[in-house]
Design a protein that fits this description.
Layout lengths: L4 E8 L6 E10 L5 E10 L7 H14 L13
């Protein structure tokens, strides 16, 4: 899969105070069908939510699926 859009969502559960990261991937295949894959909903236990920390966290999760963000095409907004 050469091109995909990654959606990262963070939230904190109000009762326990635990933070989570949801990660999904959108992709249009060769037949122009839109495909959405939920890669996971995992506890987020990092020390902060700064862009560089989140990027490392997301890169580690993507590595599990043998996916990598292209440094030239990736926007860390």
């Amino acid at each position: 899969m050469d091109n995909f859009c990654l959606i990262v969502d963070f939230w904190t559960e109000s009762y326990t105070g635990l933070s989570y990261c949801g990660l999904s991937l959108n992709h249009v295949d060769l037949t122009f069908q839109s495909c959405t894959f939920l890669l996971g909903c995992v506890p987020y236990e990092m020390e902060n939510k700064r862009a560089s920390t989140i990027r490392g966290f997301v890169d580690d999760l993507l590595n599990i699926f043998e996916l990598k963000l292209d440094e030239k095409k990736c926007y860390d907004g």
